[in-house]
Amino acid sequence: MLPKKFSLTDNSQSLKLEKLAIIIVSSRDSDAKSKRDRTNSQDRKVTLIGEVVSVERLKDGSVKIQPLRTFDKNYSLREMYRKPPILIETVNDLCDE
Question: Which of 89, 61, 69, 60 is nearest to 21 (CA)?
């Protein structure tokens, strides 16, 4: 379970990054029915879900790992693989922090 805090040994000075965000992403097909069969269609609906986990080096040299946020949004399969806005917005928000 997160959050966790770890104390590192001698190599704690070798950590170059103060903060790191790990974005975990998955998708699920919708069971929505339409007038035509969308089984192989790029227009079928899918849900993009994800979680952002932060890894942060603290002033005392320890490392804290904790969840930052979750997200989900419905897209057509085509849009999800090309340019999913929720993922782009999440990355932009993290860069602004």
Answer: 69
Q: What is the pTM of this model?
A: 0.74
Is the pLDDT at 90 greater than 90? The verdict is yes
CA dihedral over 71, 75, 80, 82, signed as positive or negative: negative
Q: What separation in angstroms does the CA of 7 have from each of 2, 3, 16, 20, 86?
A: 15, 14, 16, 17, 34
Q: Is the pLDDT of residue 55 over 80?
A: yes
Pairing relation of β-strands 45-57 and 63-76?
A: antiparallel
Tokens, residue 72: 């989900």
CA distance 9 to 90: 33
CA 7 to chain CA centroid, nearest Å: 25
- Give me 87's structure tokens: 């993922």
Can you tell me which residue has the tokens 């990355």? 91
Q: Which two tokens stand for residue 41?
A: 């269609």
Residue type, 73: K
